[in-house]
Recover the amino acids of this structure.
């Protein structure tokens, strides 16, 4: 359904794909299957992020070995590494191949600040950034020529047309891929955006839905 509606890329085993619940063998298997089945039709991005640098390196190497086009990398979570540590971690995987940095501090509890991104942007293997902090941060990067996808569906229309994002790495696209593609590539359209917003908001609320019908807590 995604490919039939003209999406440019498929992200395998990301947050929505529950890669965090898979073994590395399972993730690499899914990446390989996606490449083998659809790699001639769409770009394949594999989630290879880890809070352990050596694990991130291994996963990245394995993903490229099975043919993915780029690797998505979250920043090391839980340990709250230093800014120098963030740069060192990302440089380790950037030495392997094309990388998309994923900044979502609501999940990692650590923001990747602009100073780190601007440092890493000098590396030709940095494809771009998936940014979930907000549209003002996106504008800060796009003004400098850094490629950014928003990771927030509900503000993706404005991110694309008012703040310079090249697109969205979308949850809602799993439900309404054609509509999301139209929002990203057919020009600014407030009326169409209003139709997509309920889906985007519903996807954003999915984490609030838990254990319905399992009795009292």
């Amino acid at each position: 359904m995604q490919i039939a509606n003209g999406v440019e890329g498929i992200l395998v085993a990301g947050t929505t794909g529950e890669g965090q619940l898979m073994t590395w063998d399972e993730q690499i298997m899914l990446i390989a299957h996606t490449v083998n089945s659809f790699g001639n039709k769409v770009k394949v991005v594999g989630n290879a992020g880890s809070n352990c640098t050596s694990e991130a390196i291994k996963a990245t190497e394995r993903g490229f070995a099975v043919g993915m086009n780029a690797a998505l990398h979250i920043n090391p979570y839980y340990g709250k590494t230093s800014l120098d540590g963030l740069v060192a971690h990302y440089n380790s995987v950037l030495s392997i191949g094309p990388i998309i940095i994923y900044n979502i501090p609501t999940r990692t509890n650590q923001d990747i600040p602009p100073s780190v991104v601007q440092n890493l942007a000098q590396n030709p293997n940095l494809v771009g950034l998936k940014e979930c902090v907000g549209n003002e941060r996106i504008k800060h990067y796009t003004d400098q020529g850094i490629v950014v996808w928003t990771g927030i569906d509900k503000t993706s229309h404005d991110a694309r047309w008012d703040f310079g994002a090249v697109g969205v790495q979308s949850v809602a696209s799993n439900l309404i891929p054609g509509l999301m593609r139209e929002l990203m590539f057919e020009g600014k359209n407030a009326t169409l955006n209003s139709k997509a917003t309920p889906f985007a908001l519903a996807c954003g609320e999915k984490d609030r839905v838990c254990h319905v019908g399992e009795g009292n807590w």
Notes: The first strand starts at residue 9 and ends at 12.
